[in-house]
Amino acid sequence: MDNSDQVNIPDIYFDGIKVTVTAVGVNFILTLNDPHPDTANTDKDSKLRSKPILIARTSLEHAKILVMLLKKQLKLYENKTDAVINLPKDVYKGLELDEKEWQ
Fold first, then answer.
1. Do 2 and 44 have their domain in common?
2. Measuring CA to CA, how many Å separate 49 from each of 12, 27, 33?
3. Which domain holds residue 48?
4. What is the CA radius of gyration of the chain?
5. Are 46 and 96 contained in the same domain?
6. Best CA proximity match to 15, nearest among 41, 42, 49
7. CA–CA dist 48, 39 (Å, integer)
8. How many domains is the chain built from?
9. pLDDT, tens digit, for every residue of 11-41?
């Protein structure tokens, strides 16, 4: 395949995500957080400044498949490399996730 056959596909990095689920689909807003948050601000309710960089929309069915494939691939990676992808307890708590669901 030469370069004329290639589609210009964006290559992005994101470190934040907002997910909304409706009766007919799932919406993802991928964001990029400020690399230098205001450390002087001690307000517990303050959030990192983030910039939306991509909106993706899909069906409920495709979203479910995506989640299952991502989990499968990450588990294969952990098993193959004998490495555990560790997350801080604060991440689980902040996102209201149960660490045991990964088992």
1. yes
2. 18, 20, 6
3. 1-58
4. 17
5. no
6. 49
7. 10
8. 2
9. 999 999 999 999 999 999 999 998 887 765 6
- Which residues, at least 6 apart from 29, have a Cβ–Cβ distance to it below 8 Å? 17, 18, 52, 54, 55
Tell how far CA 64 is from the center of its chain: 14
Sequence-distant (6+) residues with CB within 8 A of 28 are 17, 18, 19, 54, 55, 56, 57, 58
Pairwise CA distance, residues 69 & 77, whole Å: 12
Any bridge partners for residue 18, and if so which?
A: 29
CA 58/CA 6 separation, integer angstroms: 24
pLDDT tens, position by position, 37-73: 776 565 555 556 889 999 999 999 999 999 999 999 9
Residue ranges of alpha helices (H) inside the chain are: 60-81, 89-94
35: nearest Cα among 17, 48, 44, 47: 48
Cβ–Cβ under 8 Å, residues 30 and 11: no
Residue 43: per-residue pLDDT: 58
Q: What confidence score (pLDDT) does residue 15 get?
A: 94
